[in-house]
Amino acid sequence: MYNSPVSFWYRSLLPVLLWSAVAVAQTGGKTPISYKLLSIHVKGLQHFTESQVVSASGLRLGQFAGEEEFKQAAQKLGETGLFTQLNYSYKYSTQGCDLELQVAENDHLVPIIFDNFVWFSDDELLRMLHDRVPLFDGRVPGGGHLTDQIADALGTILAERKIGGRVEYMASGPLNGSIESYDYKLSMHAIVIRNMDFPGATDPEAPVLEAAAKPLSGQDYLRTRMRLQEKFNFLPVYQSRGYLKAQFAESQPKVIENGEQTLVDVSFPVTPGVKYKLTEIKFSGNNVFPAEKLRELIPLKNGEPANSVELTDDLQQIHKLYGTKGYLFAHVDAVPTMDDTAATVAYQLNVTEDEMYRMGELNIDGIPPENAKKMLAQWQMKKGDPYDSSYPQRFFSIMYRDFGLHGSYDVAPREAIDRQQKVVNMALHFLPKS
Fold first, then answer.
1. What is the pLDDT of residue 21?
2. Which fold would CATH assign to domain 277-352?
3. Which of 424, 244, 429, 247 is nearest to 346 (CA)?
4. Which class is domain 190-271?
5. Model pLDDT, residue 96
6. Which of 20, 174, 344, 402 is 20 to 30 A from residue 121's alpha carbon, by CA?
């Protein structure tokens, strides 16, 4: 009886297969070509089952297999990207071979999104995909071939239903950030929105939501696009009226007509929740401006519905106010304390003022030197003064007077912030108007 270990390591997004060749001894000096598989066991599993891994390997009990088949099975599993380490070993005798796979699962998996497969529920698609791709459970690794296998399987499912088009997918996540999901969609097949409704919505919000959704009629349906609509167009309707915990469920498309294009009606289920009224606003961390001055920038009154959309805009005005004193990176974090029983909310506004920046160098180009000199004389924010972020706009709209500048120009002010020296160098670049 002989034990032959072979190791496979995966260290990049697209796994690279490495192995070591091991000689197999046999009586008579000959190497056996294949063995009858008596058992296949998998060690190191945390999420997958042994039967799933064996099925995905392509091996089966009773078949005759050898070193080449074992290597191919290990490579097939490794190329999915679902394992960070994969070894195999086997013992053989005159009766056959016992194979053992030792694996380490990849725990960096992300979900997939079915963007416009409107003929199926998510549960239906997940079930059908799992039947075709045994190791798929709704999540995929950032590298490997599993994402391609899912696209191929989706294409087969659609072909069986005689639904034309091509399945595409792309990684989704923040710019320069990690992958958060893989979005699958059917292209080359128009799926068009006809009507929209909002289950759970009541007056007076329902007609406002319907008006906000009206531009969607006639547009292509994509779940990811509907999520953006909910976040930026629909949810603010409630947040501006005091419904601070309002939530929209996943959009629900319903196929109305199939043909060269597919027409769908889309529901946006909403749960408004409690309508909160404001009881108090407190400030902390503010030293440059008194709380009374900051409170003047927040029109919201105690006893009124808590308009969180307006509050967000008001906090931006506070940021601009700090910018006039050189505190360019000051910001305010709003922390709500909600009382669901009384339907009230109090806000603690935590101010982070950061450090003050001063005016640095001023450079002017694009106009004759004599005109630039006159402009420099008019520029009242001198080097070393606290930098006023509102000054450049005020300078050209109110203070600046043209002395002999011929022709018409556009000016592009450019701020260069030096985080180490805590200064702002300003360049005024003039371009002749065409």
1. 28
2. Ubiquitin-like (UB roll) (3.10.20)
3. 244
4. alpha beta
5. 93
6. 174
pLDDT of residue 14: 35
CA 131 to CA 110: how far, in whole Å?
20
Over residues 314-369, the pLDDT tens digits come to 999 999 999 999 999 999 999 999 999 999 999 999 999 999 999 999 999 998 89
335 in Cβ contact with 347 (< 8 Å): yes
Burial of residue 252 (CB within 10 Å: 0-12, 13-18, 19+) is middle
pLDDT tens-place string over residues 277-310: 999 999 999 999 999 999 999 999 999 999 999 9
The pLDDT tens digits of the residues spanning 414-424 come to: 999 999 999 99
For 48-80, b where at least 16 C-beta lie within 10 A, e where not — what string? beeebbbebbebeeeeebbbebbbebbeebbbb
Report the chain's terminal Cα–Cα distance, integer Å: 87
For residue 204, which phi and psi values (nearest 5 degrees)?
Answer: -95, 5
> Which of 224, 85, 252, 241 lies closest to 168, judged by CA?
224
Name the percent of the chain lying above pLDDT 90: 79
Selecting from 2.120.10.30, 3.40.20.10, 3.40.50.10540, 3.10.20.310, what CATH number does the domain 358-432 have? 3.10.20.310
CB-CB contact of 39 with 99 (8 Å): yes
Cα distance between residue 123 and residue 7, in whole Å: 37
Q: Quickly list H helices, 299-368.
A: 308-323
Q: Whose CA is closest to 143, among 108, 113, 174, 169?
A: 108
Give strand pairing partners of 37.
97
126's tokens: 């997940």
> Which token pair is 194?
């006809």
In this structure, the strands spanning 97-105 and 83-92 are antiparallel
Rg, C-alpha atoms of the chain = 33
Is the pLDDT assigned to residue 135 strictly greater than 80?
yes
Residue type, 137: D
The fraction of the chain above a pLDDT of 70, given in percent, is 91
The span from the CA of 323 to the CA of 415, in Å, is: 13
| CATH, range 2-105 | 3.10.20.310
